[in-house]
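Below is how a single chain appears once it has passed through the pipeline. First comes the sequence as given, then the structure the pipeline wrote out for it. We keep one example in the README because the format questions we get most often are answered faster by looking than by reading.
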Amino acid sequence: MTQINHDDLRGAIRALTGNNEISGAELARETGLSAAAISQFLNSKYKGDNDAVALKLNTWLESRNAAQAVMPTIPSYIETPTAAKITAALTYAQLTHTIALVYGNPGIGKSEATKRYAANGNNVWRITASKSRTNELETMYELALEMGISDAPYQRGALSRLLRRRLTDSNALIIIDEADWLNYDAIEELRILQEECNIGLALSGNHKVYDRLTGGTRSVDFARLFSRVGKKVVLNNILKGDVDAFCDAWNISGKDERNLLNAIAKRPGALRSLSHILPLASIYAQGKGVAINCETIHAAMIELGHNELTEV
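Resulting structure:
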């Protein structure tokens, strides 16, 4: 087995962490080593088996370099017209301390847009509801954890009071993705939290979110929820500009390629399908020494199990 030069390896790892290409926590998670062991090894202070640590780090580094050699540069975020509409609704809710409702078909970019807003915003916290997090206690507890309250009490009254103290007049925005999972009690608890703390709230999900707020019949109980919605964005279909934004981000200018991608995006999965297909199409194109074209897009579709289009 080839001897690993510890000093060279330390320099390579330090270069990545120093350039913020990867954090110490991420490196520990991806290598299976503890953050302390990595830190001590990099500082030549590890008292354990240095060769074992070096082997794991070197294996990780070689795998990373190999992946980067074939992986295309994937756009970190694509600002589509639909994403701009979602961002505008979130901004409105935060600035006016009201509720925004964003709902529609899957694959249109709701989750990515809300993630982006949360990552770049001030006092913006985003959580995702799920089958195991549907009631008010689980929802509030998840929110507390997202806010960094690691010692949050798992009790309705105490948790509610704690969140109110932290959120009152904070100009915050709470984003609930996949909000169609929430039951009425959870939504009502969020509504009261939003109102009492004078903050913004955004509920994002599929069409069931609308049903949750109206009860399907606009009863008196649900009317007090729905009447507080300041901004509503309904996303039934992608826009042509959404696909154009993807094409521009991937430097795809050919008319046939753009028509093909527009046809793909009209099927179930919409923009999410493009996010899966284009990186693989780019790898195929890179291997052939060509730009992304219809051939590489079709090849990526087949490899990923997408059915071929009958017409473009």
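The mean pLDDT is 89.

See the next section for the split statistics.
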